[in-house]
Each structure stands twice: as C-alpha cells, then as structure tokens.
Design brief:
Layout lengths: L2 H16 L36 E7 L12 H4 L7 H7 L1 E2 L5 E4 L3 E4 L5 H15 L8 E6 L2 E7 L5 E5 L6 H7 L7 E12 L2 E7 L19 E6 L1 H5 L5 H23 L1
Parallel strand pairs: 6-10
Antiparallel strand pairs: 1-2, 1-5, 3-4, 6-7, 8-9, 8-10
Helix pairs in contact: 1-7
C-alpha cells in the first residue's frame, strides 16, 4: 500500500468513526420498519407516595376565614405567582424521619406511603370529626411544594430543578435543563428512583418513540437523571463532520512535518 493510499484509508476511518450520526441526535423516532403509523399511548404515571423529607403545601379554607386562620402559613397566603422554592421549604410541612408532619391543632399526622389525595381526605376527615361541622364547608388542598428532580451528566444545566406542576415527563425535565448536549447519549438515559422498597435504576432510549410506553417516561418527585457521554467525547476528534475533517487535517499535517524532519 502506498503512502497516499494509507493516508486516504486513515482519513476515511477517522471521519466515519468520529462523527456523531444524526439518528443518534433525534428524539422519539419511529423505528418501525413496516412504515405504518403507530399510535403510541403513554403510560400513565402512578400516584406518588410520600417519603421522608418531602415538603407539603397544605391549604385549608372555609366560608368564614377566621375559623381556619390558625392553619394559615405565610406560604399559603401568598399568590401562586409569588411562591418561591425557599418560602415553600420554610413554611411548608416537612415529612420527618418517622413519616409524620406536624400541623397546628391536629398535631402529628402520619403521611409516609400515602398519596396526596389520601392525605387530603385524612386531614378533611379529622377536621370534620373533631373540630368543624359540615356547614363550615371545609376545603382542603394538599400539594407537594414543587416537583423536584436532579439531572447530571451531558446537559446544558446540571443540578437540582424544581417545577411547579403535577406531572413531569423526562422530555420536559431535560428541556428544563437546557437539553442534552451533542455528545450526550440519548439512547441510554439513566433514571434512578427512590421507592419505599429501595432504589430502582433503569436506562431508557429517548431516540425511540416507544419510550413513552415505559413506566420511567413520567418522572416521580426526587428522581435522579444521568446522561452518559458518547465515546466520541473521549476521542476528541470532533462532534461534526467539519470538526472531524479539521482534526484529520491537523494530524496529517503533523505527521507530514515529523516525516520531513526525520527524513532531513
């Protein structure tokens, strides 16, 4: 093999192995080879069951506000737009290590392992049985003090994020973190989930539209998302065709220079 042919082979090899294919960058691709249109039904997220260190926002209303004034907190008195993560943390009700929250008058209430709806019904029942009559029209709202998750790895903005909405899917969470970088592996996104029975870890492929059928497509509060890097990042040859060509030209120039120096 001549030197020219050798350089051509090296150039082609580096070019095709260092570039990131477009198919690895596109989300939710229909990989059904039949070409037929499929209707994908996303798996509904299961109701979240409360765990230790969760923070609850509990709001109690009645026809006469004076009757429930003792239950009001600074957080509940603020408008929805004015609530901040810090105010909800300091004024909300934190689930302690024993699974209880402490409320005025009602005292300690066990909430660990319960859904938000179950906690709401329990508080409403205690109020009507022990302190109020049905004519008071007690209205109880129980929410998490923000949907919190942590994302790390190959995204534009890592860290713990908080969204003020009931349900969050993994695509929304990634978008809120500034999207996955070019060298992030969209085919193996790891979801780490803390459950009452232990820690679960699962990889999902965001390039496949069928990911919406996965029980991990919808996040649970306190989920941890990790985006692994592609192997092209460690090679350092470039993320696009232009970058790869530039790297190859630089290497060939260096090799030629070294060859000429040694020859002389």
């Amino acid at each position: 093999m001549t030197r020219k042919a050798f350089y051509i082979v090296v150039f082609i090899s580096l070019f095709f192995t260092s570039c990131i294919p477009v198919k690895d960058l596109h989300y939710l691709q229909d990989k059904n080879s039949s070409g037929e249109q499929n209707n994908i039904t996303a798996v509904e997220s299961k109701p979240y069951r409360l765990q230790a260190n969760d923070v609850l926002s509990i709001d109690i209303k009645a026809i006469d506000p004076k009757l429930v004034a003792i239950f009001s907190t600074n957080a509940s008195e603020q408008s929805a737009a004015g609530k901040s993560e810090s105010s909800l943390y300091f004024n909300g009700f934190t689930v302690d290590d024993h699974g209880n929250i402490r409320m005025p008058i009602l005292g300690e209430i066990n909430v660990i392992g319960y859904t938000l709806e179950e906690v709401r019904l329990n508080i409403e029942k205690k109020l009507l049985e022990e302190y109020f009559k049905s004519e008071a029209n007690i209205f109880v709202t129980v929410k998490l003090a923000g949907f919190r998750y942590t994302i790390n790895g190959e995204v534009a903005s890592t860290g713990t994020k908080t969204l003020f909405q009931e349900h969050v899917n993994v695509m929304e969470a990634i978008a809120n973190a500034g999207d996955i970088t070019t060298v992030g592996n969209r085919k193996a996104v790891t979801i780490i989930r803390q459950t009452p029975t232990g820690v679960q870890m699962h990889d999902i492929d965001l390039t496949d539209v069928n990911v919406m059928k996965s029980p991990y497509y919808y996040l649970q509060p306190n989920d941890y998302i990790y985006i692994k890097p592609l192997k092209q990042k460690t090679w350092g040859t470039g993320q696009t065709g232009i970058q790869s060509i530039g790297t190859v030209i630089t290497l060939l120039s260096l090799a030629t220079t070294v060859y000429l120096i040694l020859k002389n």
